[in-house]
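Standup notes, structure subgroup. Blocker cleared on the fe (ii) ion input:
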Amino acid sequence: MSEAHIAKATKEFAVHPYIEFMTDTYDPYGKWLAEEGLPVVDGEYVYDVRTMELGDWARRGGRGAYLSFSDQRVADAYVCEIPPGASLAPQRQLFEEIILVASGRGGTSIWWDDAGPRRTFEWQRGSLFAVPLNAKHEHFNTSGSEPARFMSLTSQPVAFEMFRDPGFIFGTDHEFRDRFDPDDADFFSRPGNYLTEYYGGVLHTNFISDIRAIDLVPRERRGKGNRNMYIHLAGSTMFAHVSQFPVGTYKKAHRHGPGAHVCMIDSTGYTLMWQDGEEPTRYDWAEGSVVCPAAGQWHQHYNTGTEPCRFVALHASTAVQREEKGLEQIEFEDEDDKLRRMYEEECARNGVSVQM
Ligand SMILES: [Fe+2]
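Run returned:
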């Protein structure tokens, strides 16, 4: 790293007194998390959402845990398990939500008016969908013997900072008809619209049954053999993208704004993350792992397994992603030699030949 990168920063306060005052006085999202009575996992990583420990979720039914990663407060995740044959309590909410199914099978009904039409679709491991803003929805497990688990990214922290009132956030009856039309029988079943001429590809859709089966397009500037698709769901202001890169390769290090939650679905490997001037920290992953880089934190994903690596990244919104002036990345020829050597050693250990 250059000298400029290792300039030492100091802090005026550990916690600024004004922030301490505001947190003691308000902290609406922190207070809400405490009231939920669920485990709250902080840090920036969980190894496997399919097996991590959950607590009983009195408000919704089922079991859950919050992932409150990287002190971002623009988007937080949670993991939820629905017991065999059970349903969660119906809910509506003035914040965005994108759901990735980790294991099991189930379904979701979505509607506005209790006396009006509802749309119901079934999901499985690898399904991806958004809850249309403020629509009433109910998730249920369709198996009588196996639990179902999903991971979800929401903009709940923003809603709590803005309104501070759960009664308003979960109890307002405005219908955002431009997000979801219950009279549209095919709303969750019609094929998506691929805009493949757009660099990196864009998929506009309302429901993806299997994220492993969608089309991807080349995105070579992120690394050799890299393939990609951006995904916009049900008019959500949040979005997702899928990235795939070949056996024996890794992606270029890059950084951007807060809120990206990288959910690993295929192969095995590790991610390095570091702030300017820091040594990288390593996070080993496999299917079910989630890694969440903080705002402005460099991160780099390495495939050391014997199949192409694929992940789904869930994002807060384009407004905070901070890529409008182009993605900031480190080209392979500028990277630290010791990071390449670590990768070569890991691949050798797994019997994988490096294709960089
Ligand atoms: Fe990223």
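Discussed briefly. Residues 253 and 330 are 5 Å apart (CA to CA).
Next: hand off to the docking folks.
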